[in-house]
């Protein structure tokens, strides 16, 4: 007598765009391996899409426009959400948890907005919520932060987590092009979306930063807690000035523990363009690649690098999560979600220590440098280096500060713009990682 074949784990797939169709393909192509790795086969029993006619290549009998009914089906064990956006994804996730189904998601916007409440709902239902694909695509990052580094204390997580902006900034550095020209090229080649706002203005990176900071510091951090500046104001001059001091310009997501001086730490999370030394490992991350640099007390420095977008790379991360939650399901268990026990205060950007690189067109006459330096001193900002090029009417002062509260630095810039001897503030960028 032969044993009955194992009952499949039945998956509802919500969304079948670039990522969803790659997930479907990988589940089909790797069916035997998945069965061996999980202990039961995986079967997709329904695919929710908005326009079935747009999906001629998937089995038509699986398609439905009623995502809520698909999630509610008794024969569904696990839900994979790759629709993106806040609604209906959020309602569908809560419905999945309420009916005892684990969820795998790639939804950074939703997790960054509502992560703690979603985790609480999953924990209450005794199911899993995994979302490795939400940050930096294929790069295994959230599980290392959540599990591998669970015994360490993280100090800083600094990442290039948006491929579109990294492509644009890389091209600006390579060709000397301005932002608009590099964006046009990125759009033409498909690196930038027709509406590039989410990438270019830093919203995408800010959501990812919120997720990274929450995991790194065991503290709930939402997108609204993240200071955000995009790259549309980065000029060819900024990029050229960076090169002059051995730096390159990157859009960084920076999550750090900052002591508040009273014996407790705060968490500062920010996304903005910054100059970093070309010797920093993140400086070598070119094109549309992502990388995240982690500094931990015991582990020291770690770097995670790879493809942060695209159907197949993102689907790889989704499948990894699918295997994890499926194994838990087979074991009748659920994994430990992130903890927010530390609950550190969020430090406002104005109080966060940063360093600035400032380039000024000035009149080259006695007393100008002293007057410029006086504006820094007035805000208690210490200057690290000053360099002058040119003379007469074409003199340029390039100043790099030591670290100071960001508000003091921006107040200094405002004062410099009002000085009669300053003809123009031609470049202002924060600097990271410079000794
Ligand atoms: N649009 C993102 C990027 C990928 O350019 O990296 C998805 O988060």
Automatic annotation (TrEMBL):
Give the source's domain of life in one word: Bacteria
The catalytic site is made up of 208
Query: Start and end of every ACT domain?
Result: 357-430
Residues the record lists as binding NADP(+): 14-21
Q: Which GO terms describe its biological process?
A: methionine biosynthetic process; threonine biosynthetic process
Q: Name one Pfam family in it.
A: ACT
Q: What EC number(s) are associated with this protein in UniProt? A: 1.1.1.3
Spans traversing the lipid bilayer: none
**Enzyme class, first EC level, given as a word:** oxidoreductase
Keyword Oxidoreductase attributed: yes
Necessary cofactors: a metal cation
Residues binding L-homoserine, per UniProt: 193
Which reaction is the catalytic activity of this chain?
A: L-homoserine + NADP(+) = L-aspartate 4-semialdehyde + NADPH + H(+); L-homoserine + NAD(+) = L-aspartate 4-semialdehyde + NADH + H(+)
CDD domains, per the entry:
ACT_HSDH-Hom
Q: Which UniProt keywords apply?
A: Amino-acid biosynthesis, Methionine biosynthesis, NADP, Oxidoreductase, Sodium, Threonine biosynthesis
Cite the binding residues for NADPH: 108
What is this protein for, i.e. what is its function?
Catalyzes the conversion of L-aspartate-beta-semialdehyde (L-Asa) to L-homoserine (L-Hse), the third step in the biosynthesis of threonine and methionine from aspartate.
In terms of NCBIfam families, this protein maps to: PRK06349.1
What protein family does this chain belong to?
Belongs to the homoserine dehydrogenase family.
* Protein name, as recorded: Homoserine dehydrogenase
What is the scientific name of the source organism? Blastococcus aggregatus
Question: Species lineage, top-down?
Answer: Bacteria, Bacillati, Actinomycetota, Actinomycetes, Geodermatophilales
């Amino acid at each position: 007598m032969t044993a009955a074949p194992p009952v499949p784990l039945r998956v509802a797939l919500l969304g079948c765009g670039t990522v969803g169709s790659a997930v479907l393909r990988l589940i089909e192509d790797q069916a035997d391996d998945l069965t061996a790795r999980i202990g039961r086969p995986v079967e997709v029993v329904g695919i929710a899409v908005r326009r079935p006619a747009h999906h001629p290549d998937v089995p038509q009998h699986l398609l439905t426009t009623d995502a809520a009914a698909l999630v509610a089906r008794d024969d569904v064990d696990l839900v994979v959400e790759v629709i993106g956006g806040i609604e209906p994804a959020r309602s569908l996730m809560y419905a999945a948890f309420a009916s005892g189904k684990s969820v795998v998601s790639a939804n950074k916007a939703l997790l960054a907005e509502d992560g703690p409440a979603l985790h609480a709902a999953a924990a209450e239902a005794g199911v899993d919520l995994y979302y490795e694909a939400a940050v930096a695509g294929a790069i295994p990052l959230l599980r290392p932060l959540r599990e591998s580094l669970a015994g360490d204390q993280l100090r800083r997580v600094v990442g290039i987590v948006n491929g579109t902006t990294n492509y644009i900034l890389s091209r600006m550095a390579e060709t000397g092009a301005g932002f608009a020209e590099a964006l046009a090229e990125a759009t033409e080649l498909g690196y930038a979306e027709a509406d590039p706002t989410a990438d270019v203005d830093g919203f995408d990176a800010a959501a990812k930063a919120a997720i990274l900071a929450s995991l790194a510091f065991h503290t709930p951090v939402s997108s609204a807690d993240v200071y955000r500046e995009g790259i549309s104001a980065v000029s060819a001059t900024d990029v050229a000035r960076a090169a002059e001091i051995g730096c390159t310009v990157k859009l960084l997501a920076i999550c750090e523990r900052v002591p508040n001086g009273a014996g407790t730490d705060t968490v500062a999370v920010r996304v903005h363009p910054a100059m970093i030394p070309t010797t920093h490992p993140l400086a070598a991350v070119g094109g549309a690649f992502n990388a995240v640099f982690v500094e931990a007390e015991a582990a020291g420095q770690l770097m995670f690098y790879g493809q942060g977008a695209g159907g197949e790379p993102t689907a790889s991360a989704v499948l990894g999560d699918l295997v994890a939650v499926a194994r838990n399901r087979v074991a009748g268990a659920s994994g430990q979600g992130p903890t927010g026990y530390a609950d550190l205060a969020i430090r406002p950007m104005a109080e966060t220590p940063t360093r600035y690189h400032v380039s000024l067109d000035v009149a080259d006459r006695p007393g100008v440098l002293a007057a410029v330096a006086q504006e820094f001193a007035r805000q208690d900002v210490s200057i690290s280096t000053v360099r002058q090029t040119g003379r007469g009417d074409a003199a340029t002062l390039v100043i790099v500060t030591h670290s100071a509260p960001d508000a003091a630095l921006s107040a200094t810039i405002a004062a410099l713009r009002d000085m009669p001897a300053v003809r123009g503030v031609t470049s202002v960028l924060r600097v990271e990682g410079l000794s």
